[in-house]
Amino acid sequence: MHYIRLLRPPALVPANGASRNGLPSLSLVLTITTDLGDSFLCPGAPINLVVELQVEADDEVDDEDDEEDAAENGDEENGSQNKRTQPKTHLFSLATTAVGNAKKNKPAQGGDLAWKAGLRVLKLEAALPKEAAAFWNSDDVKKLCIRAANANISATHARQIIYPTESSSGSVGGNGLIMPLWVDVPDAVIHSGELFPHVALRRLEISPDEGNTAAVEVEEEIGESIARHVWDAGLVSVAFLADTCLGKLKSAPKASHNSKKRPHDGDEDDDPHSKETQVSILKTMLRPQKKDDNATLRVLELGSGVGILGIGLAKILHEAAKVADPSAAVDYRGATVLLTDLPEAEERARSNMALLDFAPLDTIRLEYANLDWQDGHLGHFGPGVVASPPQPFDLVMLSDCTYNVDMLPALVGTLSALQTATNQTTQRVLLTKKTRHESEELLFILLKDAGWKMLAGGGHPIRLPVLDDNDEQTIEVFIFERTI
């Protein structure tokens, strides 16, 4: 999977005398890469891109019931005054023109711009249409969106990631996906000349129900640094959990048998968990393990980064709680999701947590605490992680946390020490990873030596949808268990 990224925040280009509508243009510098920016998209055919202005405005609409009542009573004048407002999204396509290297970057049909094989950077100027003038100068919420023109390859819904051979409309599509991005357009940028913020928004819809646009949203930093960005495994984890907790996004795919055999993979015939699917195990994991009738689910994430996984799970549990039958065996209301990471990750994580809206039901507790694995593997946990008296976690989860091999002993030690510190007899862990290099296999040796057992017969590979056939990418999902 690839990501559209801005290499610097957008910049306003003031309207000049030749401007037909007096509106400014926007200067954009973007690229399309893999999650860590280590590989540029190299498509077999040019990919058309679209730049849109999205405006959330309150539109006046007639209240039909009041109109009918007024007509029946002969009071048509008052009936015509019965108006109400409802939110509506207005979309405006911006005409784009390549800047620099014009011979290589020619506008595609309709004014859209194309990303072609061999490109590293795309510089363009996007002109606002005259139809957007009133909205541009209003106080309405405005965002810029940069996406692939072909909706079938624009990664907007979890089902596209879990079932990549199907488009969001259910028709057969290509195997590749490009994740769009959004950028806020604050009023201060328009009216006071302030600069655009250095953050962009990622958004992924999670509901299996048509018409339900519930989505996970997190901001990441603009630029080339891989820190404070959304990474593949976190995104896949959110899609996997949405598929598990909210109902199938589509019929389940056939199991893959290409998973690599790990040092401690057991013989499936001897493994009591081998016949269970990871989904059924995960559903069990997402139930409070305590016997107390008032027990609520508690989940901890290690190495949360920008928070895509922890925030995503909180949103998923919230959506599940809204539609849950009161007599159901699993009730997610009151669940706690705790994000943990190093202190330098706290600001971005908390900022993204603040974006999450649990209305109309305040169902989930979303928290953050700093946790350094160098302290954790020694059993040193702050009160935000291990309370007094200790409260166990039903599930510990982590994604894309194995790339730094030097930290693997501390990671495994933290998992084991956390289980001891919280008095959890049996601890289960959900781990998703994208293998960056062979040395990461050390993780499985360390886990086995520490008494952690892999469930469900091994890891489940999820092939990421990519447009470049030479850039195959796979995320593996593992469930581990340890009893003390």
UniProtKB/TrEMBL annotation:
**Gene Ontology terms, MF aspect:** S-adenosylmethionine-dependent methyltransferase activity
* Ranges of compositional bias, category Acidic residues: 58-78
Region described as Disordered: spans on this chain: 58-88, 252-278
Extract the Pfam families matched here: Methyltransf_16
Q: Which residues form the signal peptide?
A: none
Which InterPro entries does the record cross-reference, listed alphabetically? Methyltransf_16, SAM-dependent_MTases_sf
Q: Which SUPFAM superfamilies match?
A: S-adenosyl-L-methionine-dependent methyltransferases
This protein's GO CC annotations = cytosol
Under which name does UniProt file this protein?
Uncharacterized protein
